[in-house]
Specification:
The chain is an alpha+beta fold. The protein is built from 18 helices and 23 strands.
Length: 643
């Protein structure tokens, strides 16, 4: 009977399976992916998923630069590129006929390309990963048929993923555009392109804009709808959508894929956002329990400070009570990590420790503390500390303090601008449009002027005289110290006497003798003998009937004049400039490497290249890219001629 019952059950089983006599096929079972991560971080997103599209995106395209001074239109332009641009101009209805008053008015697309005031250029940029729509960036421009790009303006150019291609070849998607005035090497004579540094390349500072963002994706190592939902929930809980966001930050696509967008408030620091998401927990561990574990691990293993710092940030405000015990930790790494987390989570209690460290810490500690002070909202005491530091003698410290203070002011005014545009709170439309308060209004102890709509001049009336110029993002000239006057008396020749600045003894004004490109005779002008007034005169464009005169020079040309004035001893100020790293970013992006657009460690900080006043001596700059302060002194500096 027992055997009959077994047989009956077997028969029923076969009937349930369709009474098939075929043997069941073996199924392939994929082993679950297990990442090699620290046990403390096992339940973070990093242990479960891989980020895609987190490297900088190389974009490029062929464009047209106009407004040159007879240095373009060379006949060596490859025919495929010429044909591509002609087709683009025809499709867009662009020709000289619809640009009345310009030097190319009435010309066909082919004639425009051959015009000596026009250049065809290759435009390239490295767009930071996760950059949202509207994110601005610098673009690098290289002339293809011109000896100089000086004075030129790039027409709006579409930028596609990858290398630039011509008509008839496979085209990648357009994700950005770039256009605007060019910044070329400011330390070369614009009338002597064949001598000294090349002027065949330049940059459009802040002239690029993302139009069609490349999204970021998370791919689960193991397909699981439940775990994917948990990750989506964890991300959206930690980063709820706010002003400027089009929807939830994370969206589940399947049990294996999650779409991720960068929140609007992280527009300028997408890498920081991605690092926090990477170490976000999605399990049921209470945040205080996780925070305690992270703090103890950080004290025991400072080498894990980067990962544990991001993990603490991922916990949000729940981590603040625990990181406070690190603010006065005797070891620098745990202390700086705790202060970093506290500052980024806007814990006002961290500000007093950061202010002390910024004033009396070691070199690296000071730079870190100053940068963090720029991020925290802790009232006027932070502004006072940064102003005090700007008066010190160490140039890298002064510049770092200025950048932190300027960042605080810009963030404050962005909030005011948002309030104005939403109809909430006090403010004016003027403040909303200028980006940093009314013109010449003191904000956070710094005066800002918008000069001729071309660049910014920030006046910082503390410390020894110093001229600091930027080569990235928005063009800025920063004047430190008081008494920024042209030497008295002085005769300063610029560009082989085509520009002559002369100040007679006892005079409050300076005479400017100018013979620009194509001018048969020189013109004479008079300006107040101060560096701010000289800058404004050089940049201003004079119109018929205008009571104020000006030379309408570009940002790079203005810097070139200041360079000549400083070299000749025409000012007591030292001069510093950012070292440009855009070209290195492009090379890295082209090689599909990771470009770090924001400093991640003290060694990654932007380099400031420094030239002391002509009366001082120093070593010549090196040629490597090691971050450091480099004195630059001309071999035989000219002395101002006296009457």
């Amino acid at each position: 009977m027992a055997l009959r019952r077994v047989a009956a059950w077997l028969c029923l089983g076969m009937l349930a399976a369709g009474c098939s006599s075929e043997k069941p096929k073996a199924r392939e079972v994929q082993a679950p992916m297990v990442r090699d991560v620290n046990p403390l971080l096992r339940e973070t997103i990093h242990a479960e998923a891989t980020f895609l599209n987190t490297e900088p995106v190389l974009v490029s395209g062929y464009g047209i630069v106009v407004g040159l001074r007879g240095t373009g239109g060379e006949p060596n332009l490859p025919e495929p590129i010429a044909a591509t641009l002609e087709r683009e101009m025809q499709l867009r209805g662009i020709s000289g006929t619809n640009r009345d008053g310009s030097a190319i008015s009435g010309k066909s697309p082919r004639e425009i390309l051959r015009d000596p005031n026009v250049a065809v250029v290759l435009v390239q940029a490295a767009i930071p990963p996760g950059s949202p729509k509207g994110k601005r960036f610098d673009a690098y421009v290289t002339a293809l048929n011109a000896s100089s790009l000086d004075g030129g303006t790039l027409w709006t150019t579409e930028l596609r993923v990858g290398d630039a291609t011509t008509f008839g070849r496979a085209q990648e998607r357009v994700i950005a555009a770039a256009g605007g005035p060019l910044f070329v090497n400011p330390f070369a004579d614009p009338g002597r392109e064949s001598e000294g540094p090349s002027r065949k390349s330049g940059r459009v500072l802040g002239g690029g804009v993302v139009t069609n963002p490349v999204g970021i994706a998370l791919m689960m190592g193991n397909t699981s709808h439940a775990r994917a939902r948990s990750i989506v929930s964890a991300i959206n809980t930690r980063f709820p959508s706010g002003r400027g966001d089009s929807g939830p930050i994370a969206r589940g696509v399947s049990g294996q894929a999650i779409e991720l967008s960068v929140p609007a408030r992280y527009r300028d620091k997408p890498a920081e956002f991605l690092e926090v998401v990477k170490y976000l927990r999605f399990d049921a561990t209470p945040a205080p329990v996780a925070a305690r574990r992270y703090i103890e691990a950080l004290k025991a293993e400072p080498g894990l400070s980067s990962e544990l710092g991001a993990a603490l940030l991922a916990l949000g405000d729940a981590a603040v009570p625990f990181v406070r015990e690190l603010y006065d930790h005797p070891e620098p790494v745990p202390q700086l990590t705790g202060l970093m987390v506290g500052a980024k989570l806007n814990d006002a209690r961290s500000s007093s420790f950061l202010r002390e460290l910024a004033k009396s810490g070691s070199g690296v500690q000071r730079l870190e503390a100053i940068a963090l002070l720029g991020e925290i909202d802790a009232g006027p005491s932070v502004d006072m500390t940064l102003r005090e530091i700007m008066g010190e003698t160490e140039l890298s410290i002064r510049v770092a303090a200025y950048e932190a203070l300027a960042g605080r002011a810009e963030r404050l005014n962005a909030a005011r601008r948002a309030a104005v545009l939403s109809g909430v709170g006090a403010g004016t439309h003027r403040e909303a449009l200028t980006g940093w308060g009314a013109n010449e209004a003191a904000v956070q102890g710094v005066q800002r002027r918008v000069v001729a709509g071309k660049f910014l001049v920030d006046i910082v009336p503390v410390g020894e005289p110093l001229i600091y110029v930027t080569q990235q993002d928005r063009p800025r000239i920063v004047l430190f110290g008081e008494g920024m006057e042209i030497a008295n008396p002085a005769v300063i020749p610029v560009w082989e006497d085509r520009l002559l600045i002369k100040r007679d003894a006892g005079e409050s004004t300076a005479s400017i003798l100018w013979r620009g490109p194509g001018m048969d005779r020189a013109t004479t002008h008079s300006v107040r003998a101060t560096i701010p007034d000289l800058i404004e005169f050089l940049a201003r464009e004079a119109f018929p009937g205008d009571t104020q005169s000006g030379l309408n020079l570009t940002y790079s040309e203005v810097i070139g004049v200041l360079d000549a004035v400083q070299r000749a001893g025409g000012t007591a100020a030292a001069m510093t400039t950012e070292r440009n790293k855009l070209k290195a970013d492009l090379l890295t992006a082209a090689a599909a490497g990771q470009v770090r657009h924001r400093p991640e460690t003290p060694a990654d900080r932007e380099v400031v290249v420094v030239r002391e006043p002509a009366s001082l001596k120093g070593d010549a700059p090196g040629t490597d890219d090691t971050p450091r302060i480099v004195p630059i002194v001309p071999a035989n500096p000219e002395k101002p001629k006296k009457n």
